[in-house]
Specification:
The chain has 309 residues and is an all-alpha fold. Helix content is 74%, strand content 0%. The chain is globular, with a radius of gyration of 19 Å.
Length: 309
Amino acid sequence: MANIETASVKKGELSRGCAALMVFVGGACYGANASCYKLAYGLGFSSAQMMTAQIWFATLTFGVAFLIGRALGRRWTRLSGVDMAKLVFLGVLSATTTILYCYAMSVLPVPFALTLLFQFTWLGTVIQVFMTRRAPSFAQVVSALLVVAGTVFASGLYESGISSFDVLGIVCGLLAALSCALFVTLSGKLRVDCSDSQRGLLVCLGAFAISIFVCPDFAPSGVLLDGIAIFGLVTGAIGFVLPVLLFGIATPHLPAGINTILAASELPAGLLVAMLILSTPITGVQWAGVAVILLGVCVSQLKLKKNAS
């Protein structure tokens, strides 16, 4: 899960409606990733291999974009060591989210893994409470309770209970949600004056470094010739490149809490794609759980908008 703001788009030049749509689409991209992971696992690829393929192809995409920009006369912007470190750290957060989420998706059903990652919505509120040292509003508390309650039904927990699922997978899913919440919150606060391709490349380099430690034998294993390349290309685009660009451009123009809420499109989009591509059965009760979760999102969003005006 990495992102930043474009140098050509200054605060105030992007309408809130457009920024909100971009964050919404970025969240939906994350949700669509789940089905790609499951398809790859079905062909025998591991979660570590998928995570590495995703990051490598995302890095390659930004690298090519940067070289094209240089050929067109765009220069490398000199950044301070602190700014570069911040961008690389966003990459580390993205890689951490991807590692944890990929593993959770490999051992858990799609609806459960998706709803675990979705907990980043209320975890983003918790992070804001710590950062601002202000108690959450009543609406935010109600929103978090609705999200958790809806998760019980949307994930399928109401049928089989938590004991029937992989414990480590659950832990990794929740940690991925925490990492994602940190990523969305911090990316909205990071303002660095350079091109999108330079930003994306620096962020991806941070993630690339982590991927080498997670899957050091990725290149020598020959897995790229076994069919993982297409999955890496797709997940790199919808799970890394597009969110980096969309969140990077849009998040600085919206309050951090609303960014987390709009990115909640990850859940319904992920379930819909899983139903269409994987033929994953989604019951009426599960969709009702999704509705409860989105109701919680709306409660929090209305309150945040009121505070922001």
